[in-house]
Amino acid sequence: MSLLVGGTAVSQALTVLAAPLLTRLYTPDDFGLLGGFASLVATLGACLTLRYSLAIPLPKSDDDAAHVAVLSLLIAGTIVIAITVLLGTFGAEALRALNFDALVPHMWLLPVALTFVALNDVFTYWAIRLSAFGVVTRTTVARGIAGLTTQLAGAPLGAQGLLLGNVAGAVAGSFTLASAGLRSQRGARLRRPIIGEVRRLASRYRRFPLFSAPAGLFNTLGVQLPPLLFVSLFSPTAAGQYVLAHRVLSLPMGLLGKALADVFLSRAAEARRTDSLGPLVTAIHSALARTAMPAAIGLMLVGPPLFGVVFGPDWEVAGQLARWMAPWIYLVFVTSPLSSLFTVLEKQVQGAAFQATLLIARTAAILIGSQTGEIVHTVVLFSGASALCWLGFLAWVFRAAGQGGASFVAPTLRAGAVSAAMLLPLALVVILQPQGVLASVGTASSAVAVLYYYVRLVREVLG
To answer: Which sequence spans correspond to the domains of the chain?
Structure first.
């Protein structure tokens, strides 16, 4: 966990430091185009391996795991070729129908990005199987550096610089992971697969393409559809504001969530065999609630002015969106790492049903909200629908782990009470709007309390 979080922390720190510069080098329209491109890559890339890659850590034998990895690569290669042909035939018309005319000249980047997304996916799970978390860490850092360097250097190119940075990160990461995986002694079978074994394992893990793949697609669509719909229903500028707000709010998820999910996946199977899955789920959720709650409440209080100061006056709308998105992102942060439970318990049907429900609720909220013509109103509905779905999923996780569906309430209330106490001076400043010394004292009091809280939390984890 320390290795994974450490590498992600470096990458995310670079992102945080570069964000105020990027928002001054690129316009909201540029970020809207990036959001649309990233959404297409994520959506098309969600099921490139038909989710067979998720099964790589599961077999007892390394040979079986290697054959699952080869199967994943073969499927991904076939799908990328098919997507390339379809883009060449219908891509321009489809992008124009989505009001993405500006993306047509850069359409060639899509299959390039998808190729390296597939390589990243397969070799990340191979590294997780080998517990080669150091390799994953180096990859995360390399991906962050390559992406940000390209985006900063590509500013004179306009939006294309952001797109090239997105692709560069995937390229850097895949080379690091693939070279390490192919050189490893346990990865010898990756270089000499047996086709009969590939077919056998395709049948053995057929629940992944049948159920996990649709669930993964629904999940990705639920996350990635908003930028596409905001471009089509509003404008690239509105989509750009949403993209920045979502990027900033997702930073904690990028820092801890993926790392914790990977570790949880590698530990949950053993915890299930020893009847300790419930305590593991409870401990992880409690730690995540204590981590995320102060930040979520603070952002709800001061989101718009904070965004205006940090990212520039053109981005205050993003701060308004972030304020309403905070409860939803909080629930994703404390719940999403536990979604590996679908895999561990082989509950792929339930996972697919949840993701389908989430996608339908989010899409309906956006379409209803768009009738008002206001991006803020639409995001309020979208975030509310998302939060309700994730709350229901959290209850299911605790019940499936044998802890009772409402067991998450007590840790949530404790984290909320502590956070409210720390942020009370700041809340009074926002409500009463005093001037001068009183405003400074109230803001500083909450800032010092929250800083002390996180220092103690870190010491507790490391100690």
So the answer is: 1-205
